[in-house]
Amino acid sequence: MAKQHGLVFDPNRCIGCRTCVIACKAENQIEVGSWMKVVNNRGTTADLPVGKYPRLSLSWQVSTCLHCEDPPCLEACPVEEAIYQRPDGIVLIDREKCTGCQACGDACPYGAIRFSPVDGRAEKCTLCSHRLDQGLGPFCVKECIWGALRFTNIEEEKNHS
């Protein structure tokens, strides 16, 4: 695999505004929920700091599909080619082939696969592969005004650290 695309998140730049979540929902025309979640250091979406005054802290973490190098969801899926990995490392779900068995969701260590409330089929972040194919980046990255999300080649990132 020549490239392994992915998102890099900088928690020091994130203010929990959830613009990335809104961008994901809008770009992918998701009616309910999103493929992305922003949670605080308590693991919830509430704006509640940790600690006691005057030592309060509040930090945020983006939670979405990490497009694993060896995706457990792909291995767990009993339907051939319902989940597949592109040469650039992006893991996609063919919703036409998905039976909604939820094996992929159970296998995902990040809880990044959700099941549509409309048809019960699996869906997850695509890293905006339709935009990448046009030479554009993921919409969540484009819309993050604080620069907390960065789209990168993970292999190059590993070599520079």
Give an account of the 3D structure:
The protein has two domains: 2-64 and 125-161, Alpha-Beta Plaits, CATH 3.30.70; 66-124, Alpha-Beta Plaits. The chain is 22% helix and 21% strand. The chain has six helices and ten strands; from the N terminus they run βαββββαββαββααβα. A hairpin with a 2-residue loop joins β3 (50-52) and β4 (55-57). The longest helix has 9 residues, at 19-27. It is globular, with a radius of gyration of 16 Å.
Helix-strand string? EHEEEEHEEHEEHHEH
Q: How widely separated are the two ends? A: 20 Å
Q: Oligomeric status of the shown chains?
A: single chain
Unreliable residue runs: none
How much is the average pLDDT?
90
The proportion of residues in beta strands is 15-25%
User: How would a textbook summarize the main sheet?
Assistant: 2 strands, antiparallel
CATH topology of the largest domain, by name, is: Alpha-Beta Plaits
Number of domains: 2
User: What is the architecture of the largest domain at the second tier of CATH?
Assistant: 2-Layer Sandwich
